[in-house]
Amino acid sequence: MNWKESHLLLLTLLDVALGYLTVNIEPISPVVVGEAVTLKCNFKTDGRLREIVWYKVTEGGAIKQKIFTYDALFSTNYTHIEESLRREDLVYQSTVRIPEVRILDNGPFECHVGIYDRTNRKKFLEAYGQVFLNVMAPPASISVIAADTPAAFSRYQAQNFTLVCIVSGGKPAPTVYFKRDGELLEVQLALETGGRGSPGGRGAAGARRPQNLISRDLDDTKLQKSLSLLDLDSARGFFTDRPSPTHFPDGEFQATSQTEAIPETVISREFPRWIYPSDPEYVFRHTQIPVSDGTIEVRAMITWMLNPDLDNNALFSCEVKHPALTMSMQSEVILAAPKGPRIDMSPTRVHVGDTVRIIVQGFQNEVFPEPLFTWTRVGGRLLDGRQDHDGKLLTLERVPAELNGSMYRCTTQNPLGSTDTHTRLIIFENPNVPQGRNQKSGESGVR
Fold this sequence. Notes:
immunoglobulin domain; cell membrane
């Protein structure tokens, strides 16, 4: 017998004398949150089974949470092993079923098996196997917003515009891309902290080149003028800082209507066409933000030089592909300038000393991005002395009689255009306020 044969015989005798135990867990494909999954642990031994313990491993192996235990000593259905010198191989399988997988279940699981050596009851052998459970979660939400809005703009200066697509609740990170009017956008990738891009490269979303954009309205730069918006202060003297109230026999300040909303508005989009390229370049960048629940929030952005003449009423969509989704998710917005603001004044019948609220209730169209609102008084300052007021709501505290007939202008604007709408304030005499006291409070109320 040569030395190799002697070595193999020695190993065989040692194996028989010491017994053996092998453990392995069947690999499993990625699963989606909410699905059921079964983990299978197979082990083979010639000893007597003592226990099976399953662990969920967290914190990089620092913490092991026990999720299942099988104790053979207290079980009536364990297998009895005949004690003899001959070798007997027994194959076992332990399964753990998770009925509804959660994101927190993502990570390694371990199956630990302990046996008594068949040749020595006091000798305990232990081995384990490990498997990584990859849990996927489809995105929970998707939305498209405009960056840095609402914000003022200059219709005579070219400016960049950024759309942001926010995708939350997904694992792993989804693939995000943009379309314009149903056409996949060709984009330039920009390097972004936390993102996966390279500057100057063409993105995967750029498989097709968009067609040259055609103006939706070739007469958009034509400014429609309304007589109601001419400078009537100098032309006819209708609106002054302190219009004189007109007294009538019944003691009230009369008018043809309580509030006069001039229906004709000016939609102003005087944008020089020559500064805008006909085929804009879209710069794409994105970030991935890990969330504490194990999911990832993705923020994808496209930036381009906005052309209000071409981009007004353009449909942009953000679409998401993810291995946990059977079909893509999408969110879409239509870029639109404000049109036809609806103005509401309360109370509908204003008396001297009332607090008046003038508010923009909505528009004739869906406006995107969010517009800015600026209130001014035609021919004078606001009641509190300011030149203008920002916001949907304009509040006039304790209006004096001198404001009767005054006109208020609401300018609504976003990067695609602006709209001016006017309403007239008609004030009636308050029978509860003596005329002398009213005049005194009115003089002190306007600055």
